[in-house]
Amino acid sequence: MHIDLDRKSGIPLTEQIRQSIADRIRCGLLAPGVRLPSVRKLAAELSISLVTAVQAYERLAQDGLVIRQQGRGTYVYQDETEAEGEAQTDWQLSIMDYVPRARFWQHHHLQSSVVPSVQLKLSAAEINRELFPIEEMAEELYRLIQKEPWIISEYGPIQGDAQLRGAIAEYLHRHHGIRITKEEMLVTNGSQQGIDIVARTFVGPGDVVAVEAPTYMAAIDVFRGRGATILSVPVDEEGMRVDLLTAMCDVRPPKLIYTTPSFHNPTGSVLSMRRRKQLLDLAQSYNCLIAEDDAFSDMYFGEAPPPSLKSMDQSGHVIYLKSFSKLLSPGARVAIAAATGSVLTRLISSKAITDLGTPLLTQKAMLPFFQNGRIEAHLVRMRARLYEKRNIVLNTLTRYAPSGVTWTKPMGGLNLWVSVPSRIQTDIVLGEALRRGVAFLPGSVFYAGEPESHHLRIVFSYLPDDQLQEAIKTLCEVLAQAIEQKKEEYSINPLV
């Protein structure tokens, strides 16, 4: 069993092992009834003492996650009714894997499968289908299949459809001030693949990657999967603390800086113009790459955010990742990665190894939206509805949130960041919220380093308006209950 242990962390090895195995059990990676490695085998594989291995299994047994049977071993807990007739698959644990704790997948799996009663999802970074041009997209797909059926029988270019790349280049110039040609971009299957391709191409074991703290958790998974050393840079209302990153660079400069400068995920902050210039200067000084993840800059309420880093880049340090999944069609999975010189050439090579190209049909279906101004008209409507939904959340929080709870007021994007008193752990609060039918993401999953557990992310773009208000009200009730309970514990034992 492969478990990444941080021996320099203040968290005991016993607790790290317990947490890692518990996560695998809860998300279904370790099925009920599966036999875990013996304590001797676990100790040998992880280079730990037998005592540490025994203590980790004992903690899991106390949590009710495993059953220890004298002389037989340790098994994932299983109801007797489930055990009958099921084949044991514990031999699979002998196969070494190199998958880190994929926190994005774990939380998605947990909230959609393990807790099927959840109806009010504030966790999904998705947009309600009413906001998408579904009928128009369906018409384009139908037209293509009727008039150009050959499309479904051919592979598209590895770099992406030339017409679409040209249309996107014009769109980025009009609305983001980015001057690139169609030859300087690559179409990817969503921005998540863009992040993965950047990491595959430029990040290897031991390479240093700087990320915001907090940051997009699926990016953390990607960089960890490449064996990177991750530097966590705090975020405030002006975005990434570039001054702190500069101090870190003096000790150990990163090879790659990953950032979401416009309507940052999860806080919603916007990197100020001053810091954008500082970040570009830093990249030039230390010869490092910047991966600019621009998923949300088109979703602004009022003024557009400052110019993208890519539009200001004069020396080829910025790899620009732009998703159109959340703007037009999540099912189409169309995004781009823009870069110059040998950086782009190597990204295209990685894309070719990964999947040989993004499906041509969805690229062609998306093309008309960029050619005749339809995307601009659509975005006007989408921004108006997202603004209304954001205000529903803000108004409901103002009315029902208990004392001690604060939140951001984002001027764009899909989510806002809620903070509770520091003694409250939102990982624990999540359990009660799920029982009440409400899902959110606890703040801890957004940190690559030491997590801050008194935050949570709310996504306001997914639920219908009435359900959104109901979800926020219920969440406030759960938070109030947790705060009151902690007050009672503190009054009994002030050291808690």
Task: Please give the structural blueprint.
Layout (H helix, E strand, L loop, with lengths): L12 H14 L12 H8 L3 H13 L3 E4 L3 E4 L3 H4 L19 H12 L5 E2 L12 H14 L14 H15 L8 E4 L1 H13 L5 E6 L3 H9 L3 E8 L2 E2 L1 H10 L4 E4 L13 H14 L2 E6 L14 H4 L5 E6 L11 E4 L2 H15 L4 H12 L2 H27 L5 E2 L7 E5 L6 H10 L2 E2 L1 E2 L12 E5 L5 H28 L4
Parallel strand pairs: 3-14, 5-6, 5-8, 8-9, 9-10
Antiparallel strand pairs: 1-2, 4-11, 6-7, 10-11, 12-13, 13-16, 15-16
Helix pairs in contact: 1-3, 2-3, 6-14, 7-14, 8-9, 8-13, 10-11, 15-17
Subunit structure: Homodimer.
GO molecular function: 2-aminoadipate transaminase activity; DNA binding; DNA-binding transcription factor activity; pyridoxal phosphate binding
Protein name: 2-aminoadipate transaminase
Description:
The protein is α/β, with parallel strands linked by helices. It has 3 domains: 13-97, Arc Repressor Mutant, subunit A, CATH 1.10.10.10; 120-127 and 377-492, Aspartate Aminotransferase, domain 1 (Alpha-Beta Complex); 134-372, Aspartate Aminotransferase, domain 2 (3-Layer(aba) Sandwich). It has 17 helices and 16 strands. Strand 12 (406-407) and strand 13 (415-419) form a beta hairpin. It is globular, with a radius of gyration of 24 Å. It starts with 12 loop residues before the first helix and ends with a helix. Mean pLDDT is 89; it is low at 83-87.
At the fourth CATH level, what is the homologous superfamily of the largest domain?
A: Type I PLP-dependent aspartate aminotransferase-like (Major domain)
| Shape assignment | globular
Quote the beta fraction: 5-15%
| Cα-to-Cα separation, first versus last residue | 35 Å
Let me know the number of strands: 16
Helicity, as a percent range: 40-55%
CATH architectural grouping of the largest domain? 3-Layer(aba) Sandwich
CATH topology of the largest domain: Aspartate Aminotransferase, domain 2
Unreliable segments of 5+ consecutive residues: 83-87
What is the residue-mean pLDDT, rounded to a whole number? 89
Oligomer kind: single chain
> Which CATH class of the largest domain is shown?
Alpha Beta
Q: Tell me the count of domains.
A: 3
- The assigned structural class equals alpha/beta
Instruction: Trace the largest sheet across and list its strands.
Output: 4-11-10-9-8-5-6-7
EC number: 2.6.1.39
Family: In the C-terminal section; belongs to the class-I pyridoxal-phosphate-dependent aminotransferase family.
Cofactor: pyridoxal 5'-phosphate
Protein name: 2-aminoadipate transaminase
